[in-house]
């Protein structure tokens, strides 16, 4: 069965997307035997291949004495963009417990590198295999590390157009950054996959019995494992043993995140982390992909009314696709719908920047 995804946006932006991303915007044929959002999500985690990507790692020091791990694909042999100083750059932001080794990152990078772009992955503190030097990690509402990374990348390549691509929590972080920085973001466009638009509603969805069993506990264990790996640094400011008893994302946030980042409650943190409440402050072109059956990001939280009023944001909603899955074909191991959509949008943003600005009513 071929489905036509719902594209929510203003007419001019929609016309641009239909012109430059026609196949993926207009058609999505999900894997026929993989029905339902939970099944898509699980099958993707089990089946997706991991293409070989040779990274160049860079550790950059932060003003608080910490360090951030960046994984680069310089693409020095790019035929389309042989001049390094102007070669387009894609900045990838992985999900909650992800890093540059996640299959969805590897496939997207292969897609971008094939098109001639430079790629860099921003690994959240503590998840890039680097040593945690200070008792500071990350959360969806804190954009300071991302601001520093963008400044660093733009400092190295000031004439290179920079596009941000965020997945799940990485998408939340990217949207919150774009809303905060406005015209000073340093990015020509943003692209997100499976963003949880409202952190409170996302958390509620993840606590439904089956979602809790399949996903919530697993993610909480991953978060606790990261804290335990850096126990010697974090125990200076947090009761690590208490954190290690968390059995859900909400419990982890109650015992760790809100204390580390100065929130009074999870409700306060979740509201601050939710990009749906800040989207109107963004100024660059943004394309967001979500599935209506995503167990992490429920459909009723999608900011459809807001998107319809904004000239620079488009939300593409598929009936099926799960969370960071969007599987196609009978045996979906390689690039699928979300990677192809990313590739076409990145190409459109880099090769037709003036047309994109005009479609989004953006003036220099």
From TrEMBL:
GO terms for cellular component: membrane. It is a single-pass type II membrane protein. It catalyses: 1-octadecanoyl-2-octanoyl-sn-glycero-3-phosphocholine + H2O = 1-octadecanoyl-sn-glycero-3-phosphocholine + octanoate + H(+); 1,2-ditetradecanoyl-sn-glycero-3-phosphocholine + H2O = 1-tetradecanoyl-sn-glycero-3-phosphocholine + tetradecanoate + H(+); 1-O-hexadecyl-2-nonadioyl-sn-glycero-3-phosphocholine + H2O = nonanedioate + 1-O-hexadecyl-sn-glycero-3-phosphocholine + H(+); a 1,2-diacyl-sn-glycero-3-phosphocholine + H2O = a 2-acyl-sn-glycero-3-phosphocholine + a fatty acid + H(+). Its main location: membrane. The keyword Lipid metabolism applies. GO terms for molecular function: acetylesterase activity; monoacylglycerol lipase activity; phospholipase A1 activity; phospholipase A2 activity. It comes from the Eukaryota. Belongs to the AB hydrolase superfamily. AB hydrolase 4 family. Phospholipase that may play a role in phospholipids remodeling. May selectively cleave myristate (C14)-containing phosphatidylcholines through its predominant phospholipase 1 activity, cleaving preferentially acyl groups in sn1 position. In parallel, may have a minor phospholipase 2 activity acting on acyl groups in position sn2. In addition to (C14)-containing phosphatidylcholines, may also act on other medium-chain-containing and oxidatively truncated phospholipids. This is Phospholipase ABHD3. It comes from Neogobius melanostomus (round goby). The lineage of its organism: Eukaryota, Metazoa, Chordata, Craniata, Vertebrata.
């Amino acid at each position: 069965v071929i489905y036509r995804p719902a594209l929510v946006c203003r007419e001019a932006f929609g016309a641009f997307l239909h012109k430059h991303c026609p196949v993926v915007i207009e058609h999505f044929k999900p894997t026929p035997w993989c029905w339902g959002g939970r099944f898509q999500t699980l099958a993707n985690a089990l089946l997706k291949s991991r293409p070989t990507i040779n990274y160049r790692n860079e550790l950059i020091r932060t003003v608080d004495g910490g360090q951030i791990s960046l994984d680069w694909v310089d693409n020095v042999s790019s035929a389309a963009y042989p001049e390094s100083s102007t070669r387009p750059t894609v900045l990838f932001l992985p999900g909650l417990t992800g890093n540059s080794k996640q299959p969805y990152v590897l496939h997207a990078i292969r897609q971008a590198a094939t098109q001639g772009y430079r790629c860099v992955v921003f690994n959240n503190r503590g998840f890039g295999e680097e040593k945690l030097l200070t008792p500071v990690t990350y959360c969806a509402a804190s954009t300071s590390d991302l601001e520093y990374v963008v400044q660093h990348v733009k400092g190295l390549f000031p004439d290179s157009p920079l596009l941000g691509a965020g997945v799940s929590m990485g998408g939340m972080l990217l949207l919150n950054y774009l809303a905060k920085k406005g015209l000073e973001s340093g990015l020509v466009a943003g692209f997100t996959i499976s963003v949880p638009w409202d952190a409170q509603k996302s958390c509620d969805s993840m606590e439904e019995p089956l979602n809790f069993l399949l996903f919530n506990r697993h993610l909480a264990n991953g978060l606790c494992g990261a804290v335990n790996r850096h126990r010697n640094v974090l125990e200076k400011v947090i009761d690590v043993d208490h954190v290690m008893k968390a059995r859900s994302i909400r419990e982890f946030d109650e015992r760790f995140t809100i204390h580390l980042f100065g929130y009074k409650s999870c409700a306060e943190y979740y509201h601050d982390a939710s990009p749906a409440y800040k989207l109107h402050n963004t100024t660059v072109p943004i394309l967001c992909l979500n599935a209506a059956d995503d167990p992490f990001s429920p459909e009723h939280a999608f900011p459809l009314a807001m998107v319809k009023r904004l000239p620079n944001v488009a939300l593409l909603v598929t009936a099926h696709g799960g969370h960071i899955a969007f599987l196609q074909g009978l045996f979906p191991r390689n690039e699928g719908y979300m990677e192809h959509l990313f590739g076409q949008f990145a190409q459109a943003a880099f090769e037709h920047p003036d047309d994109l600005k005009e479609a989004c009513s953006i003036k220099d």
